[in-house]
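Final report, closing paragraph on structural work. Over the funding period we assembled a curated collection of sequence-structure pairs, and we close with a single example.
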Amino acid sequence: MGNEAAEKTEEATTRRRTKERERGNVAKSRDMDSALVMVAGIALLAIFASGMIENIQNMLRDTFSHLNVSEVDVNNILGLLSPYLIYLAKILLPFLVLLLIASIFIIRFNVGHVFALQRAKIDLNNLSPRRMLQNAKRMFNPFEPRSMVEFAKSILKIVVVGACGYSAINSRKGDLLGLIGLEIPVALNIIVSIIINMIINMCLAMLVLGYLDKKYQNYEYEKSIKMTKQEIKDEHKDTEGDPKIKAKIKSIQMQMARQRMMAAVPEADVVVTNPTHYAVAIKYDKTKAPAPMVTAKGVDYLAFQIREIAKENNVPIVENRPVARALYNSVPINGIIPSDMYVAVAEILAYVFRQKNEQ
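Its predicted structure, as stored:
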């Protein structure tokens, strides 16, 4: 029974998931992120390719048309390199900035909003030689399950992506053999088209592998955050409170409410009984309410207590089974009697007031 209770067989609760996200522990697939970033990079290259080529041509043109060794000042390296730095900024900066933005959106899309300061803290224990040795053993241990899985994934990625790239080249083998004797622009166009096909095939393979890896990482994450039945119970206690304490508080509240109710019995105008099982105290004060109110009610032993208090304080007790049952079941304490019982209650009050006047 102890081993069974210690097994993590229960799905993680919402509270557990929230805590794990706050710690930065979320399901994430680096393969999926890499594949999407690579696709985004290739798409951006396709968009900026013409501008990049134009800037490269301008840089080469300016370099070779204004090349004059006598004007080169070795003491002014920054001035010599500044035009090339400007060209490099024009060529790479828009591409790199947009690729960075795309990478942030891709990670945010795959992981969601996670801001865990705990992950940013430096744990000095990880820098201890003992901890570093343990991590190294775990990383290079070929029989450690996670290492074996990661190694198998790496081999699979190399084989699949490589095979897709090779298939693209092999399908255009005839075009490659026909490059001999072609003009350079025509040959370059053929080579570029083959490279594009190869890149597309490799990207598709990486996306498929990334999707499979994401499914696997989700499975591993759900497995890692599973909870034991005892953890579920403990969390329920933390969230809802200890049932024993809640029951004790509720008992005290009921006892206090009962005491307040009993304190109102001596002020009642009449107590209607069943005669032994039900007892309902009624008070009519037109300055406080437009109709008579039920100030106390109870069954069995509580009804007995109401009757005893009424006798001790000379509160009239009237036996009327239908009215006693109806008032007990339909009117809460300090509640006004319903309109359909006005007549029955009025008759009882009239009888009580008449008896008082005769005395």
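Residues 184-224 form the longest helix (41 residues). The chain has three domains: 25-115, 125-226, 245-358. We thank the funder for supporting this effort.
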